[in-house]
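Collaborator request, handled under Task 6.
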Amino acid sequence: MVTPTEEYYPDHDGGTFAPSRATTVATWKAPAFLENLAIDADGAVFVTVYSHNRIDRYDPATRATTTFAEVPAPPMGLAFDAGGVLWATGGTLYERPGYIWRVERGGAVRQWCELPDATFMNGCTLHPNGRTLLACESSIGHILGIDLGQPGRWDVWLEGDRLRPLIPKWPGSNGIKIREGWAWITVSGRRLMVRVPIRPDGSAGGIEIAATRLCADDFAIGMSGSLYVTTHPEHTLVRL
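Structure tokens returned to the collaborator:
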């Protein structure tokens, strides 16, 4: 969501380029800004349409795309909990506050948290405890822990210099996923992939650098354990 400038163009090394076959499964009429996605237990794909304050649903069986939910501000990250409830982060970019919304299976939206200092909510994922949503705030560089049992309750789960942006309007912490007891986090403006151990009590350990010179946005974890990382502004997919 940021345009490179002559003053700051990221140094990126995505490794050897090996073209892979890609198939377009759905399209949106321009102008539309698609930000993130999540897949439910039945294989349906839910997409945040940032430009239209909307979450859409793509059904791979019928190849139909429909509006699933409308939210009061631009949506960003998505994550499902074990019960099939969809959680969304969002808010108007560079404006306070940020939001967490709970979206029921039928598409009903409930504001769960208002985050007074957040101006750039981004990727999110479920904590292994199943009771907490971990959400990236990209302008401050915090990972917020959202209590899924109590509306309005949240705290800062992780913070540190390596998560903060280097210059204004370049994202700090951006995407987050969990793999084998570690939280993996992309820090776009610093060109880093970092990881953090999750302690037995659920708190975060120290930040470790896992990869450098990687202009990473959000990512997914494959069945093999590899990380499939989208890049911006390079518009490539990198496997780690």
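The cover message to the collaborator said: "The domain at 34-239 is CATH 2.120.10.30 (Neuraminidase). The chain is about 0% helix and 45% strand. Please let us know whether this matches your experimental observations."
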